[in-house]
C-alpha cells in the first residue's frame, strides 16, 4: 500500500522476470544455505565465536548497547576480524542523500538521480542502508535538504554486511552479540515503522539472499503437493514470475517490490488471494533461520516448533534472521478478473453542498459496496480502494485500485458489483469500470498492481482490522460506516482500505502466531496523516503523530473494541500494541522471545519484547533496557 496520496500516478518500471529457479529433490538446499559458519573458522577469533545464549548471565548481558565513540565500541582490529571473515561484504555506507551535500562525496549527477528516483522503491532496496520511511532516521540527510546543511548518519546503521549466504549472517549475529552492538536487519527497507534500521547499529542486509527452488511434489506434515524453497531476499515480483512458470501460485502481497521472505512473511502477509487462501504465513512448511546463538537451524513442525509457530505472524527482527522459507504452492487459477474505476461526488452533491463534504450521493454509492463486504470476501474477492478529497472544494474521489476477482469471469464480477453500479446510476454518479479477465494470477496481478510510489517523509500510517461482526448487526454497521465516512469528510488524509477475509478456514486452519484479529476481518483500513513536507521540527512532528494516534484513530478503535491492527502497516505509536498486533497470542510470543533470545540480540520498535527496551523519545538514542 502506498502512504502518499498519489494514487493515480504509478511507476512504470520494467521488471526482469526471475531467472533463478531450479528444481530438485525435496531435500535440496539453496546455494545461500550451503555456505555456513563452522566452529573451526572462529576458534581463533573470540569476537566471532558462537555462544549458547541459554548459558549467558542474562542480568549482566542485558545492558545498553555500545554506541560509536564509546570506549567499548569495537576497535578496528576487532572489525578487521569480522572483515577477514566476510570480506568486502562489510561496508560503511553513507546515507543515500550524502551525494547531495557539500563535501567530498558531493556528486551533482548522482544527486539528481536520487532526487528524481526518490519514490522508486528499487532505489532504496538496492542501497545498503536506505529505507523507504526516513522519518525514523531523524529525517537526516534528505537529498532535498542539500547542499548546505549537514549530512549526519542519524538513525542509519554504522556498518552493513551485504550478506551473500548463511555464513555472513551468522558472522554478523555472533559479532553483534559478542561485542554488545545493536543489530538490525534490512531486506528491502519497505517497513513503515523504520524497523529495518537503527542508530549505532550493525545491519544485516538480506536483499541479496536470492534463489528459488521448485518441488513439484513435496510431502510434509500431511501435505503433498507443489512447494517452493525461497531465499529470504526474494521479492514478490521474482517469486510470482517463478510461480507462473510452474503454473502455480504462491500466496504473496500486492506490492511489486516488497520482500516476500522478511518482514512480509514473518508479519503474516496479506495477499490478493487471502480471501481464498488466508495469510501467506499459513502455508509455510519450514524456515531456515539464524538464531541469537549464531547457529543456522531448521524451524518446522518437529524441530524448534515454538520458533516455527512464532515466525509465522510474530513479526520480523525478533526471533532470528530468516535465510530461507519453504512454502506450499497452489494450482494457478484459470481465470482472474480485475476491475478498476473511480468516481467523484456528483454535480448534484457539489451544488447541494458547496461548502462542505457531505456528498450524500457519493457516500450512498460507497455504502452499497460496503454493505456487501462479508458476501464479497466469502466469494474470494479482494479489493483495494482509496477515498480522499480532491483539490475541488467539497469534492471527494473514490478509486477502486483494483477489485481483484480470483476465479471469476467478467460477468460474475459485474453481478457481484451490480448493487454498487445500480446505486451509482440511480444517483447520476458517473462510474465507468474497466473490467478485464486474465488467464491466470500473474497477468492479473501485473495489470492490477503497478509499482507503488514510496518514500514519504512527511507523514505516517495507522491501521485497523475491522471485524465481520461490525457488518452483521445493522445498528453497529451504520455506526461503523459513519465513523469511516466522518473521518474522510474531515478531509484529514483519506482512507486506504482492503476488503479481505483471511479466515482460519481459508488458511487451512493453521496453528500459528498470525494476529487472531485477521481471522475475523472483512476490512483492513489504513488512515494516514500527512504534514508539510518542509517540517523538520520534531516536537511539532511528535504532536502531529500524537494527534493521529490519540484523536484521529480513536473512533476506529472505539467502534471495534478488542479488534486489532496489522503490524506491517501500523502506527508506530499504536496503543497497547501487544494486544493490537497479536491479541491472545502475545503471552506465548513473549515467552518464546525470552527463551530464544534472552539477552535481546534482536530488537525492533514495536516488535515482540520491545517493551523491555528504549531508544529514547527521539528513537535515535542508544538502545537500552528499561
Ligand atoms: C508499497 C508497499 C506495498 C505493500 N504491500 C503489502 C501487501 O500487499 N501485503 C502485506 O501484507 N504487506 C504489504 N506491505 C507491508 C510490508 O509487508 C512491510 O513493509 C514489510 O515489513 C516489508 O518487508 P521487507 O522485508 O520487504 O522490508 P524491510 O523493511 O527490509 O524489513 C521489514 C522488517 O522485517 C525484518 N526483516 C527483514 N528481513 C528479515 C529476515 N530475513 N529475517 C528476520 N527479519 C527480517 C526487518 O528487520 C524489519 O523489522 C507493503 C508495503 C509497501 C511499502
Ligand atoms: C526504478 O529504478 C529501477 C532501477 O534503477 C529502474 O530500472 C526503473 O526503471 C525505475 N523506475 C522508474 C519508474 O523510474
Ligand atoms: C548554499 O550556499 C551557497 C554558498 O553560500 C549559496 O550560494 C547557495 O545559494 C546555498 N544554497 C542553498 C540551497 O541554500
Ligand atoms: C482537502 O484536502 C486536500 C488535500 O490537502 C485539499 O487540496 C483540499 O482543498 C481540501 N478540501 C477541503 C474542502 O478542505
Ligand atoms: C474455482 O471455481 C470453480 C468452479 O466455479 C471451483 O470448482 C473451484 O474450486 C474454484 N477454485 C478455487 C481455488 O476456489
Ligand atoms: C439524473 O439525470 C437525469 C438526466 O440528466 C435527470 O433526469 C434525473 O432527474 C437525475 N436524477 C437524479 C436523482 O438526480
Ligand atoms: C483497462 O485496464 C487495462 C489494465 O488492466 C489497461 O491495459 C487498459 O488500457 C485499460 N483500458 C482503459 C480504457 O482504460
Ligand atoms: C441504518 O441506516 C440505514 C440507512 O441510513 C437505515 O435505513 C436503517 O434504518 C439504519 N438501521 C438502523 C438499525 O438504525
Ligand atoms: C447491535 O449493536 C448495538 C450497538 O453496538 C448493540 O447495542 C446491540 O445490542 C446489538 N444487537 C444485537 C442483536 O446484537
Ligand atoms: C519547534 O516547535 C516548538 C513547538 O512549536 C517550538 O517551541 C520550538 O521553538 C521549535 N524549535 C525550533 C528549533 O524551531
Please provide a written account of the structure.
With 626 residues, the chain is an alpha+beta fold. The chain folds into 3 domains: 155 residues, Uridine Diphospho-n-acetylenolpyruvylglucosamine Reductase, domain 2, CATH 3.30.43.10; 141 residues, Uridine Diphospho-n-acetylenolpyruvylglucosamine Reductase, domain 3; 247 residues, Vanillyl-alcohol Oxidase, Chain A, domain 3 (3-Layer(aba) Sandwich). It is built from 24 helices and 21 strands. The chain has a 7-stranded antiparallel β-sheet with strand order 16-13-15-14-18-19-17. Helix 13 runs antiparallel to helix 16. The protein is globular and about 80 Å long. It starts with 20 loop residues before the first strand and ends with a strand. Bound molecules: flavin-adenine dinucleotide and 2-acetamido-2-deoxy-beta-D-glucopyranose (9 copies).
Quick rundown:
With 626 residues, the chain is an alpha+beta fold.
Q: Which secondary-structure class do the elements indicate?
A: alpha+beta
Write down the CATH class of the largest domain.
Answer: Alpha Beta
Largest sheet: 7 strands, antiparallel
Radius of gyration, whole Å: 24 Å
CATH topology of the largest domain: Vanillyl-alcohol Oxidase, Chain A, domain 3
**Tally of separate helices:** 24
Bin the strand percentage. Answer: 15-25%
Shape: globular
State the separation between the terminal residues, measured CA to CA: 34 Å
Please give the CATH architecture of the largest domain.
3-Layer(aba) Sandwich
Number of domains: 3
Low-confidence stretches: 2-19
Helix % is 25-40%
Number of beta-strand segments: 21
Mean pLDDT: 93
Bound molecules: flavin-adenine dinucleotide, 2-acetamido-2-deoxy-beta-D-glucopyranose
> If strands are numbered along the chain, what order do they take across the biggest sheet?
16-13-15-14-18-19-17
Amino acid at each position: 500500500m502506498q502512504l502518499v496520496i498519489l494514487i493515480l500516478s504509478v511507476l512504470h518500471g520494467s521488471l526482469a522476470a526471475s531467472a533463478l529457479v531450479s528444481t530438485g529433490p525435496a531435500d535440496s538446499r539453496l546455494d545461500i544455505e550451503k555456505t555456513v559458519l563452522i566452529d573451526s573458522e572462529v576458534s581463533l577469533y573470540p569476537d566471532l565465536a558462537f555462544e549458547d545464549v541459554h548459558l549467558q548471565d542474562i542480568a549482566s548481558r542485558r545492558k545498553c548497547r555500545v554506541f560509536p565513540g564509546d570506549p567499548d565500541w569495537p576497535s578496528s582490529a576487532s572489525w578487521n576480524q569480522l572483515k577477514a571473515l566476510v570480506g568486502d561484504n562489510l561496508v560503511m555506507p553513507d546515507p543515500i542523500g550524502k551525494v547531495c551535500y557539500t563535501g567530498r562525496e558531493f556528486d551533482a549527477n548522482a544527486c539528481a538521480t536520487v532526487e528524481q528516483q526518490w519514490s522508486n522503491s528499487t532505489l532504496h532496496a538496492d542501497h545498503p542502508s536506505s529505507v523507504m520511511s526516513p522519518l525514523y532516521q531523524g529525517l537526516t540527510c534528505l537529498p532535498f535538504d542539500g547542499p548546505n546543511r549537514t549530512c549526519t548518519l542519524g538513525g542509519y546503521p554504522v556498518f552493513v554486511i551485504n550478506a551473500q549466504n548463511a555464513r555472513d549472517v551468522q558472522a554478523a549475529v555472533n559479532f553483534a552479540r559478542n561485542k554488545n552492538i545493536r543489530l538490525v536487519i534490512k531486506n528491502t527497507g519497505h517497513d513503515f515503522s523504520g524497523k529495518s534500521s537503527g542508530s549505532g547499529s550493525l545491519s544485516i542486509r538480506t536483499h541479496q539472499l536470492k534463489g528459488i527452488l521448485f518441488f513439484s511434489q513435496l510431502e510434509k506434515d500431511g501435505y503433498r503437493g507443489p512447494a517452493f524453497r525461497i531465499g529470504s531476499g526474494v521479492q514478490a515480483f521474482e517469486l510470482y514470475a517463478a510461480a507462473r512458470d510452474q503454473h502455480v501460485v504462491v500466496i504473496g502481497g500486492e506490492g511489486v517490490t516488497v520482500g516476500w521472505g522478511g518482514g512480509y512473511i514473518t508479519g503474516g502477509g496479506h495477499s490478493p488471494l487471502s480471501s481464498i487462501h488466508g495469510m501467506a504465513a499459513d502455508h509455510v512448511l519450514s524456515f531456515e533461520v539464524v538464531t541469537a546463538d549464531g547457529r543456522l537451524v531448521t524451524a518446522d513442525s518437529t524441530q524448534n516448533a515454538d520458533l516455527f509457530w512464532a515466525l509465522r505472524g510474530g513479526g520480523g527482527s525478533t526471533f532470528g534472521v530468516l535465510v530461507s522459507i519453504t512454502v506450499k504452492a497452489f494450482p494457478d487459477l484459470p481465470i482472474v478478473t480485475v476491475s478498476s474505476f473511480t468516481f467523484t461526488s456528483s454535480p448534484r452533491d457539489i451544488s447541494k453542498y458547496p461548502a462542505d463534504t457531505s456528498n450524500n450521493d457519493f457516500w450512498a454509492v460507497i455504502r452499497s459496496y460496503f454493505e456487501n463486504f462479508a458476501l464479497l470476501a466469502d466469494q474470494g474477492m479482494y479489493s483495494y480502494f482509496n477515498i480522499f478529497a480532491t483539490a475541488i472544494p467539497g469534492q471527494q474521489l473514490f478509486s477502486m485500485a483494483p477489485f481483484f476477482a480470483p476465479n471469476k469471469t467478467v460477468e460474475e464480477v459485474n453481478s457481484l458489483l451490480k448493487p454498487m453500479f445500480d446505486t451509482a446510476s440511480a444517483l447520476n454518479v458517473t462510474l465507468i469500470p474497466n473490467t478485464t479477465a486474465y488467464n491466470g494470477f500473474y497477468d492479473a496481478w501485473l495489470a492490477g498492481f503497478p509499482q507503488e510510489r514510496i518514500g514519504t517523509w512527511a507523514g505516517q500510517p495507522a491501521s485497523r482490522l475491522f471485524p465481520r461482526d461490525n457488518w452483521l448487526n445493522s445498528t453497529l454497521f451504520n455506526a461503523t460506516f459513519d465513523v469511516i465516512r466522518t473521518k474522510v469528510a474531515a478531509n484529514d488524509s483519506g482512507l486506504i482500505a482492503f476488503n479481505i477475509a483471511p479466515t482460519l478456514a481459508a488458511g487451512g486452519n493453521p496453528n500459528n502466531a498470525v494476529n487472531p484479529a485477521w481471522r475475523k476481518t472483512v476490512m483492513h483500513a489504513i488512515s494516514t496523516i500527512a504534514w508539510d513536507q518542509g517540517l523538520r521540527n520534531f516536537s511539532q512532528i511528535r504532536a502531529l503523530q500524537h494527534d493521529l494516534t490519540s484523536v484521529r484513530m480513536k473512533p476506529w478503535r472505539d467502534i471495534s473494541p478488542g479488534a486489532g491492527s496489522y503490524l506491517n502497516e501500523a502506527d508506530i505509536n499504536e496503543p497497547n500494541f501487544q494486544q493490537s498486533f497479536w491479541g491472545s497470542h502475545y503471552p506465548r510470543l513473549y515467552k518464546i522471545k525470552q527463551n530464544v533470545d534472552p539477552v535481546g540480540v534482536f530488537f525492533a520498535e514495536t516488535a515482540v519484547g520491545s517493551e523491555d527496551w528504549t531508544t529514547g523519545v527521539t528513537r535515535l538514542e542508544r538502545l537500552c533496557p528499561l
